[in-house]
Design a protein that fits this description.
It comes from Edaphosphingomonas haloaromaticamans. This is ABM domain-containing protein. The protein is of the alpha+beta class. It has one domain: Alpha-Beta Plaits (2-Layer Sandwich). About 40% of the residues lie in helices and about 35% in strands. The chain has 3 helices and 4 strands. It has a 4-stranded antiparallel β-sheet with strand order 2-3-1-4. Helix 1 runs antiparallel to helix 3.
């Protein structure tokens, strides 16, 4: 099994907190679940952080059967279309986001 993780590091812009969360939960995660090769997807919202924890506003997990399934999703036209819907979400956010692909032991 493989997991692709997106880390949103920073904070939603002031006044955009609810819209940011609604866009991720209501549009982005369901869109990810519909991509080829994706078994499931979740958004994780931090509620309690240790003092030295990074400022992660949201972590999105996407579950795959294999590395090949991750690659198939990344190359898909459906993903290219979904990325267009990420642009307005990024506009609500002060920070950056990055991805890490994990093999699951």
């Amino acid at each position: 099994m493989w997991m692709r993780s997106a880390f949103w590091i920073g904070t939603p812009k002031p006044g955009q907190e609810a819209s940011f969360r609604n866009a991720i939960d209501g549009d982005l995660v369901p869109g990810l679940k519909a991509l080829p090769g994706v078994l499931d997807s979740w958004a994780l919202w931090p509620e309690r952080n240790e003092p030295l924890a990074p400022r992660i506003a949201c972590q999105i997990l996407v579950k795959f059967e294999s590395e090949e399934a991750v690659d198939r999703m990344l190359a898909s036209p459906e993903r290219a279309e979904l990325r267009k819907r990420v642009v307005p979400i990024v506009a609500m956010f002060d920070g950056e986001f990055c991805h890490i692909d994990f093999s699951v032991g």
